[in-house]
Amino acid sequence: MRIFLIGFMGCGKTTLGKKLARTLNYNFIDLDSYIENKTTEKITEIFDKKGEQYFRDLEKESLNEICKMDNMVLASGGGTPCFSDNMQTMLAKGICIYLKMESEDLAERLKKEKNNRPLINQLTGNTLIDFISEKLMEREVFYKKAHHILPATNISKTDIIKLIS
Ligand code: S3P
Questions:
Q1: Which of 84, 106, 112, 127 has the fewest beta carbons under 10 Å from its own?
Q2: pLDDT more than 90, % of the chain
């Protein structure tokens, strides 16, 4: 089985994904780390040097490679489901779980964790908050296609295990 965790930057896909994979005895893959290992470049460097479209192509290619593996939990990037046919790929290849969090909570978290995130690392204050709420609204069209939608704030790995078993 493959489990895909999707949701906005900062919703906790990686933290929860690691715990879940450990419990299920599955492999854990973080899509951004996979791309960084493959290219030996940081995500911010890829955006800076080659632009977002280049990153999105790499993201799609990497997702398709990862989908060939079984028994794994993937923490996707916040934008992964919203580009190309990535959402259809994830829906077809496994169980897709959207970790839903409100934009105010995301903004609170992302204020402290934006350095390695090229889409927001230059934004502060209200500009950051506005960006998050607008992008979240745009992206929820894709996120909401997930098989399951769970509140990211209080979710535990046990809740997910119950859901998928
Ligand atoms: C992105 C989210 C990031 C990373 C890249 C673009 C996005 O992943 O893929 O910076 O478009 O939302 P995280 O959601 O893990 O921060």
A1: 112
A2: 92
